[in-house]
Structure formats: structure tokens, C-alpha cells
Amino acid sequence: MSNSASPAVGRKLSWVTKLTYALLPLSFTMTTMVMTWQMIYYTQPLAISIGIVTTMLAVGKAIGGFITPVWGYISDRMYSTAFGRKVGRRKGTLLIAAPLNLIFYVLLWVPNMPVWFYLLINIIYYGVYPGINTVVYSLPSEMTDDSKDRAQLVAVQQIGGGVGGFALSMFNAYLFKIWGADSWEPYFKIAMIYAVLGTVLLVIGALCIKERPYDETTDISSADKGAAEKVGFFGRLVSVFWNFLSVLRIKTFRNYLGIFLSQMTFRTVRGQINAYFIMFVLLLTPAEVSLSTGFSFLFGMVCVVIWATLITKLGGMRAYRLGSWFTIVLFVGIFILGLTHGSMPKATVTLVFTILITLFTLGNSGIVNAQTYVQSFVPDVDELVTGKRREGQYAGIQSTLEVIVNTVVTILVGVILQAVGFQSGADVTTQSPLVVNVLLYMYCGTVVVLAFVGILLTYRMHLNEKTHDILVAESARLRNGGSMDDVTEETRKVVEDLAGMPYEKCWGHNNVINVSNKA
């Protein structure tokens, strides 16, 4: 896609800027600690029942998922405040969310409190945290229009998160070995270490980010108000809901949404039943295939670098197809292994599955990096439609959809397995043949079918190097005072194809942002 930075963003990003951006996903170790150890902390040292804990966490995550677009809405509109214009809209949002995140993160780990306290704190924590990840995920599009820089930012984001997760698992294993894991104190002390470290990384990263300056396209409050003098609280609520839905009118986003949902769904299904597949289909134990964890991490980091390079040469959609075809071939191989493992020595099954699932890191890395890279270009189409830059809006929507997909998949997997007679606590050899077959087809079939659906959908995405160059040039022309009447026929066709609406209805002449706008 376009390799020329727009005047709104400035020069190409330095490697210092890119590496300091990595501090933001690296700070996510705080969240990884929550996801990995919170349930164990509540059910073991604090002795809260598993039913109460799972309900409490589900409620917190669900509420957080639906609050996420609110943070995207606030982040996009931070320039309407004096603080935002002085500090920056993304930087300002991070500096507001970081101390709130720290306070409620610490309160999650306070021991021996009543259940209602943990429920309340979890709800608030999961409502505050999106103020951070919404901004972090919007930054590749916010910080630059240069496609190579965006690909590198996406890669840095993946590497930062991966390094943080791996370092946490290694460091935690060391600390639990020293301090033990039977009482609440080790969990609390480890969580406090990450609270301080994560917040420091977050603030340093926030202070170093680059963002688009205050101008006509980043002042979204004018579009919200329209002819009105101000927008009241009820009007804001309506606007948040409308902005969440009205993006579906943009053709490129609809196409991207199909790609995102297909890969997100198959990766979630595979993750949900991975241990069941290993135990009940291949008749192995997770420990027997866990020896590759360290190697898989190192291999995964190499894969991210490989795909960052390939994406800049092939483009997002061709890279996505390549990663998807590679994944399909691997899971056909895993399916064959699932059918024939009974005729192989156990050591052979373990070795073959470990190789295949490790290689899946390469395919999965290509899919995730290409999808994230393409997502960073959707706001460029949105700018042509609305005349405004709304990176936060799309980051918020995507985070909410991740919560919805995770919730729906978790429920469906449970319902399906219960319907076919899955026995909790059963020995690996006592599950019925129907359960084993359902796990085999669900594990492999979901990946193969939805990866193929994603491949088909990429051919509907016409956002490539040529069309993006045209799109960015037209936005720059209109931003600098050019007339819509002077559009060339080629540009008109590209804009209408990507936007899915007549050219005359673009550049804010619609109600995509403001439902009351009659223009």
C-alpha cells in the first residue's frame, strides 16, 4: 500500500519510535497475569467456589467488551478538550486510563475480601482496561500512513506481546519456586511487581508515541454536533451506539469484518478444545506435547519478522491467503493423524503432532499479522467517507467483537460437547466414539472450512497498493481544500468501490457519524 507519509502524519517513523511503541504491548504482562493466574488465585488461596469465580469473570469481561467502543469514542474525540489538544488525543487517553488501570489492577489482588468486592472491582477493571488496548491497537494507523512502517509496527506489537507473555511465564515459574504457591502472598507480590513494571512501561511508551495533529479531520466534535450547539449525555449515548453500527455501511469494513470473524472464530475454537483433542483423540497428555513451548515461542518471533517482510512485498491480502493455505494443509495433516494414530507408536504420534502444531505457528502468524495490518488501513477508507480520522472507533469495535466471539464460541463448544455425551472427569479411553469424532471434526474441520472462507473473502477486498495510493491522495487533496467537483473518473471509481456509496455522499456528506446529519 502507499509508501508515502501523508502531511498529517509527517516523516517516516524512526526505529526509536517503533521500539518505544513496543513498550505498550510489553506492558500487557499485567493483563496476562490476570488471564493466567486470577482464576487460580481466587479458587485456591482465597477458596471462592469455581462457579462464583467463572460467573464473576464472565460478567466483568462481558461488560468490559461493551464498554470498549466508548473508549474508542472518547479517544477519537479527545481533541475537543483543552487537555487533549495540549497532550494529544491518544496520549491523553492513555495517561488518563493508566492510573485508573493501576488502581483497579491492584485491587483485584487484595486478599480476603467479600465476593461482592471482587465482583465490583472486576467489573470496573474490565471497564477501564479497554482505555489502554483500544489506543494501542489504533496506533499503527494513527502514527503513520507509510505501509512499511505500519507493517513494522504490527510486527513490533506482536513481538512485544509475545515477549511479555513468555517472560511472565518464565519469571513466574521462578518466583513460585522460591515463594511457593499455597498462600495468597506469592500471587499478591508477583502481581504488584507487574503492576509497577507494566505501568512504568505504559507511561514511557505513551509519552513517546507520535500521532496526528489537531486539524479538521481529527476534530470529530464538529461532526457530532452538526447544527446543534452541543451534544447532551443522552445524545452521546445514542452517538456511541450509532457509530458502532453505522460503520457497516462502509463496504471495505464489511469485507474486512468477514475476514476478521472467520479467522477469529477458528482460532478460538481450536484454542478451546486443544487439550481435549490431545487427550481424547490422540490419546496423549498435554505434557507430552508441551516440550516445544520454548522453541515455539522463539519460532513464533522469527515468524513475525518473516511475515512483516512478506506483507510489505505481497500486500495484506496475498499474505493472508498464503498463511491460510499453509494452515489448511497443516490441519489436513492433523486430521489424517487423528484418523491413523492408532496404528502408530505413541512416540511417533507425539513427534508428528508437535511438528505440525509448531509449524501452525507460521501459518497462524501470517494470518494474524496480515489481518492486523489490513485493519490498520480501514480508517483510511473511513476518512474518505466521513472526512474524519476515527482509528479508535475501529479498534474499539474489534475488541468488542473479540469478546463476543470468545463468549459465543465458549457456549457453543460446551453445548455441542454436552449434546454428544461428553463425560467430565472421564478417563481418556472412556469417551464415546461419537465424542472423539466430534472433537476431531470440530478441531480440524472448523479451521479448514473457515480458513477457506477467509481466503474467498480476501478477493472481495479491493484495498491494494494502487487503490490505497489513490485513496490517500484524494483524502490529502480534500483535506487541503480541494473541491469534490474536481475528482478524476479513476478516483471516483476507486472511492465508490471501497466506500460502497456514491462519491458525492463521501467526505462527511452522510450520516455515518451523526445520525441527524441530512447532508
From TrEMBL:
A GO cellular component annotation in the UniProt record: plasma membrane
Keyword Iron: no
Pfam families linked: MFS_2
One of the GO biological process terms: carbohydrate transport
Domain of life from the UniProt record: Bacteria
A single MF term (Gene Ontology): symporter activity
Keyword Transmembrane helix: yes
InterPro entries: MFS_2 (IPR039672), MFS_trans_sf (IPR036259)
Transmembrane residue ranges: 21-40, 46-71, 92-110, 116-139, 151-175, 187-209, 273-291, 297-315, 322-341, 347-367, 399-420, 440-459
Entry keyword set: Membrane, Transmembrane, Transmembrane helix
Identification of the protein by name: Oligogalacturonide transporter
Organism field: Bifidobacterium olomucense
